[in-house]
């Protein structure tokens, strides 16, 4: 992978999310403050503990009840909807549990899609996408549609897509959740390699074995977040 | 929309439409049929405009005098006292009239349109050329002064073909009157082809209109004075005197009204086509909720998603619109084949303005149909949509 990404300085300050429920409220995420260091941070916890809520807030998909998310000093939630989209395009990469590739685009076109959104000229973005597909070992599958790829291949294409614009923060939500153990290991090896160069990778998982590969661990239980060591 | 290249958006929209080719094709066909019906309906007005401008405008009288103008339509009742002809002849030197031709018109109607014809009575001595100078006899002979009041007729080429008449054939004008064909005109590709020319006294008698005419056709020394001459005649003789341009503007007014009626009929098909586009695009949006959420997650602005969906809708309508024009051309050709056979004219025409109108309406349809789905797609919540399978 390219190793030019500098430390992002991803920080959550007094971040919480409380949903109204009937006449009361449900605390999906209790207020917490944390600076995500460069390297791989695993967010672990059982289903329904608040892991995805945390990721949604860090990504700017959902608005916090209190607090803010800072990336290099920029308050993500102070931006407009379009501003947050632009900010994500410039600074974030995403890998979802399901690959979420665009079904009508080939593997190559999927990888270059963030660059298409950024207005990068076709020739330039094609070169970058080919290089990334080569790095995830899928050069031969460049012209294939997602429906023609295996689960593991599609997820590797999704990782290549997440890296297209060399993001400073990579957020991964259960990226091996739908894969068999062998394919999952290969995807994890790719993800752990992405931390080189000071990139911040936040990996949501409920699998202790996956969490064991991380440099840092956050534990979430009933909306309470605690950091290990 | 951000920095996305326009051609990339069009490319993506096209790929989005071809994802479900059968559904897209069927929807485009809906638009195609709607636009084609509009094109054929409105092309009738365009064709008739052309016919009247090129044929009647070029060869009709400079000024036409009648009792009630064009309000009675193309073939007015013979209700103008024939004394008006004498009054007009007296004014001829003063007004520069070179020909004063009384005309009686009647329509020989039939349930079968091809069996209908316009009966055109004029002084046999003046002949058909007094009003239609381009008319030429192809077989038989022209009307002569000796024919006045006799049961003879010279008929247009199309009338001869449709009514199966030839030289020497007998033609019933009504139950009491019968005439014999003495001449057939050469085809002119105009309305004259469907006319049956008779001596004026013969037609007056057949119609029970002795002493009355439908109109008086005037030729002027200088046709540029037509408006002034028409005004003078109207004031002095208490009749309606109208010029070619009055006639053409009357035709234009009538066509505009009929355009509105025909467009109204087409509108129903267009609305149905528009609803089909809206339905297809909305279904596409619903099916791709997760995909749109992914695009938004990785950095697409809401405006990009909105533009993409609107572009799909526009593209779908445009494809349907172009298809409609092609199908419409086929329809126009069929209409013209029929009217050529019937009356020797092209009643329908696809003009540049009709082409632009059809494409414009298609795009408008696409735009309106795409607004709601585009809005819906751009406003989806990423967290909700990503959770949907």
TrEMBL record, chain A:
<dbReference type="InterPro" id="IPR003593">
    <property type="entry name" value="AAA+_ATPase"/>
</dbReference>
<feature type="domain" description="ABC transporter">
    <location>
        <begin position="10"/>
        <end position="229"/>
    </location>
</feature>
<dbReference type="GO" id="GO:0098796">
    <property type="term" value="C:membrane protein complex"/>
</dbReference>
<keyword id="KW-0813">Transport</keyword>
<dbReference type="GO" id="GO:0005524">
    <property type="term" value="F:ATP binding"/>
</dbReference>
<keyword id="KW-0067">ATP-binding</keyword>
<dbReference type="GO" id="GO:0022857">
    <property type="term" value="F:transmembrane transporter activity"/>
</dbReference>
<dbReference type="InterPro" id="IPR017911">
    <property type="entry name" value="MacB-like_ATP-bd"/>
</dbReference>
<dbReference type="Pfam" id="PF00005">
    <property type="entry name" value="ABC_tran"/>
</dbReference>
<dbReference type="InterPro" id="IPR017871">
    <property type="entry name" value="ABC_transporter-like_CS"/>
</dbReference>
<dbReference type="InterPro" id="IPR015854">
    <property type="entry name" value="ABC_transpr_LolD-like"/>
</dbReference>
<protein>
    <submittedName>
        <fullName>ABC transporter</fullName>
    </submittedName>
</protein>
<dbReference type="InterPro" id="IPR003439">
    <property type="entry name" value="ABC_transporter-like_ATP-bd"/>
</dbReference>
<dbReference type="GO" id="GO:0016887">
    <property type="term" value="F:ATP hydrolysis activity"/>
</dbReference>
<dbReference type="GO" id="GO:0005886">
    <property type="term" value="C:plasma membrane"/>
</dbReference>
<dbReference type="InterPro" id="IPR027417">
    <property type="entry name" value="P-loop_NTPase"/>
</dbReference>
<keyword id="KW-0547">Nucleotide-binding</keyword>
């Amino acid at each position: 992978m390219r190793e030019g990404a500098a430390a992002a300085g991803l920080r959550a300050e007094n971040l919480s999310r409380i949903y109204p429920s009937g006449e009361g409220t449900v605390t999906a995420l209790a207020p917490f403050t944390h600076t995500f260091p460069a390297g791989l941070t695993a967010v672990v916890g059982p289903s329904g503990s608040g892991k995805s809520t945390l990721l949604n807030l860090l990504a700017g998909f959902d608005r916090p009840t209190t607090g803010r998310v800072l990336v290099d000093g920029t308050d993500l939630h102070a931006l407009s909807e379009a501003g947050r989209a632009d900010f994500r395009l410039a600074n974030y990469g995403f890998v979802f549990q399901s690959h979420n590739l665009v079904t009508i685009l080939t593997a190559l076109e999927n990888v270059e899609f963030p660059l298409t959104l950024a207005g990068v000229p076709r020739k330039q973005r094609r070169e970058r996408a080919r290089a990334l597909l080569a790095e995830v070992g899928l050069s031969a599958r460049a012209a294939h549609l997602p429906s023609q790829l295996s689960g593991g291949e599609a997820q590797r294409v999704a990782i290549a897509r997440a890296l297209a614009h060399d993001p400073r923060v990579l957020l991964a939500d259960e990226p091996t959740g739908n894969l068999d153990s062998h394919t999952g290991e290969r995807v994890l090896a790719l993800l752990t390699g992405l931390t080189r160069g000071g990139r911040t990778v936040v990996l949501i998982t409920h699998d202790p074995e996956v969490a064991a590969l991380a440099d840092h661990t956050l534990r979430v239980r009933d909306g309470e977040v605690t950091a290990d060591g | 929309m951000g920095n996305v290249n326009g051609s990339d958006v069009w490319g993506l929209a096209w790929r989005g439409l071809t994802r479900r080719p059968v559904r897209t094709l069927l929807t485009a066909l809906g638009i195609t049929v709607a636009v084609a019906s509009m094109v054929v309906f409105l092309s009738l007005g365009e064709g008739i405009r052309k016919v009247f401008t090129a044929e009647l405008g070029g060869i009709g009288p400079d000024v036409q005098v009648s009792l009630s103008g064009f309000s009675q339509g193309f073939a007015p009742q013979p209700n103008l006292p024939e004394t008006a002809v004498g009054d007009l002849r007296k004014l001829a030197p003063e007004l520069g009239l070179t020909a004063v031709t009384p005309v009686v018109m009647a329509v020989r109607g039939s349930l079968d349109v091809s069996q209908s014809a316009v009966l055109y009575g004029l002084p046999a001595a003046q002949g058909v050329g007094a009003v239609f100078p381009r008319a030429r006899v192809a077989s038989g002979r022209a009307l002569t002064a000796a024919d006045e009041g006799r049961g003879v007729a010279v008929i247009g080429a199309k009338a001869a073909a449709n009514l199966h008449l030839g030289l020497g054939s007998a033609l019933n004008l009504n139950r009491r009157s019968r005439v014999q064909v003495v001449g057939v005109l050469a085809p002119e590709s105009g309305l004259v082809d469907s006319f049956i020319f008779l001596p004026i006294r013969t037609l007056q008698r057949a119609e029970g209109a002795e002493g009355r005419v439908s109109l008086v056709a005037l030729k002027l020394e200088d046709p540029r004075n037509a408006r002034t001459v028409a005004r003078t005649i109207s004031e002095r003789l208490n009749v309606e005197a109208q010029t070619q341009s009055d006639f053409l503007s009357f035709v234009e007014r009538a066509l505009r009204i009929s355009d509105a009626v025909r467009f109204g009929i087409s509108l129903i098909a267009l609305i149905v086509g528009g609803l089909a586009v809206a339905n297809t695009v909305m279904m596409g949006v619903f099916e791709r909720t997760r995909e749109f959420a992914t695009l938004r997650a990785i950095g697409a602005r809401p405006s990009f998603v909105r533009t993409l969906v609107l572009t799909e809708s526009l593209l779908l309508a445009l494809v349907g619109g172009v298809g409609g024009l092609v199908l419409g051309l086929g329809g126009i050709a069929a209409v013209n084949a029929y009217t050529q056979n019937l009356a020797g004219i092209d009643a329908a025409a696809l003009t540049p303005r009709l082409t632009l109108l059809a494409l414009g309406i298609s795009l408008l349809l696409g735009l309106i149909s795409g607004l709601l789905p585009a809005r819906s797609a751009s406003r989806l919540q990423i967290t909700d949509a990503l959770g949907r399978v």
